[in-house]
Amino acid sequence: MKKVYINSIASISAQKTFDQAEFLTDLIDHEAIVIPVVNPNYKAFIPPAAARRMAKGIKMSIVASKMAVQEAGLEQVDAIITGTGMGCLRDSEKFLSNLIDNDEQYLTPTSFIQSTHNTVGGQVALELKCKGYNFTYVHSSNSFESALLDAKLQLASGEEDDILVGGIDEIGDHTFKLQELVGHVKREAVKTSELLKSKTSGAVFGEGANFFVLSNKKQASSYAELIAVKMFNTLPKISVPETATAFLANNGFSAEDIDLVVLGYNGDVDYDSCYDVLSHELFNDTQQAYYKHLSGEFNTASSFGFWLASKVLKLQSLPEVVKLNDIKSSGFKTVLLYNQYRGENHSFTLLKTC
Amino acid sequence: MDALKQELKEFIIEQLNLEDINVEDIGNDDALFGDGLGLDSIDALELIVMLDKNYGIKLTDPKQGRAIFESINTMADYITAHRTTN
């Protein structure tokens, strides 16, 4: 089986991550219950005639995918695999609202054709003129990891050589209101820098598009090697440490080998305990990081964590703003990511330097 | 008639997301499709729905659309002659 490398990364997030020369230096300290992305100059990447029908999720994704393909030094990729929890939510809402407001009459095509989950993958393929394998995974907070696993299997087996993988979700106003109603969103605005001090229920929501070129060929631009990814739809909190240990053992590692654990803490006092069992027990003596205070919570927020871990492994530095504890690793060779959302859809991802 | 033409231009800009175009940029005789404003077949469907919804005009023959949607002037003429709602 061939090794799988992360050859390029690109992130559109609630921070200025589209500037690839920077690494979380000029931070925005939001104070909100929902944090939108910092928009790049879309016009520099998308012709106006094409952009006019694109929802925000598509625009973010096209910019991120073009940046990733460019950084990888490629003209073309063999396949495009995306993960999204909610797809093009805004156009879905628009289409359904029109359906109700107009008594099921006068329905127009634009919002309908862009209301599906795989619109992003399709539009990215059209922009890149990629006629290869194109697949979209929709599995709540395991959507991105599902895409990652598919890419890893295809690259390891040599079926494809360069695959563009992305995690995308956009904020939809109506859906957000529903999530507020059911208590999944924090009731009070919380500052980015104080998310974990909030000790209240719910999360600060966000959106983003994070794209990566994964390849079975290592090159100068490579960030890290993707060792393994594993998902669990259900996993009792008490089983998280032993599952993490087994995951590491299956890949020839132990907890002591891990230089950095990247945890998906989102400040929800009801569910952050899933991370606590790793943070306070198995990895009590390991350097730890978190990132959802910067990105907000969304189904594919873990792709931002993947972006962070990739960058840490390449640059061998961890920005102060993501540090969770005071332990300092002498270097970053092996990084474990763990994520879950509301106690479900847990994932473990293991990266190492290359 | 001028108010109708203004209304049509505003609708086209807003509904078809022509972000960088103002009402003043669309001449009454400018071609809406092809080399003019650059609208396409999906936009044509949006315009057909707009005729029905806003003016009570149902286009049953798609071939009619080609002549009706040629410019703002042709649209306004057709709407004035065939509208069933105010």
From TrEMBL, chain A:
Record-annotated Beta-ketoacyl synthase-like N-terminal domain positions: 46-220
Signal peptide start and end residues: none
GO molecular-function term, one example from the UniProt record: 3-oxoacyl-[acyl-carrier-protein] synthase activity
One Pfam family hit: ketoacyl-synt
GO cellular component, one term: cytosol
Transferase listed as a keyword: yes
Keywords noted in UniProt: Transferase
Entry keyword Zinc-finger: no
InterPro entries given in the database record: Beta-ketoacyl_synthase (IPR000794), Ketoacyl_synth_N (IPR014030), Thiolase-like (IPR016039)
GO biological process terms held by the UniProt record: fatty acid biosynthetic process
Coiled-coil spans in chain: none
Name used for this protein in its record: 3-oxoacyl-ACP synthase
Species per Swiss-Prot/TrEMBL record: Pseudotamlana haliotis
UniProtKB/TrEMBL annotation, chain B:
Record Gene3D superfamilies: ACP-like
Domain of life: Bacteria
Transmembrane segments: none
Alphabetical keyword list: Phosphopantetheine, Phosphoprotein
InterPro entries from the UniProt entry: ACP-like_sf, PP-bd_ACP, Ppantetheine_attach_site
PROSITE patterns linked to this entry: CARRIER (PS50075), PHOSPHOPANTETHEINE (PS00012)
Start and end residues of each Carrier domain: 2-83
Entry-linked NCBIfam families: PRK09184.1
Name assigned to this protein: Acyl carrier protein
Native species: Pseudotamlana haliotis
Organism lineage string: Bacteria, Pseudomonadati, Bacteroidota, Flavobacteriia, Flavobacteriales
